[in-house]
Design a protein that fits this description.
Blueprint lengths: L1 H44 L1
Amino acid sequence: MNKKNDIGIEMTYSIVELNFLKILLINLFLVGIYKTHFLKMIVITF
């Protein structure tokens, strides 16, 4: 029983880590797009 629980906990942790990495990558991607778009806007306005 304990071993099964440990494996389950490890799996849930890995899933959480994967989701966290996904969110982090998406945020970085969106921020990158936003920054480049913002810079383009500044370049266009000047």
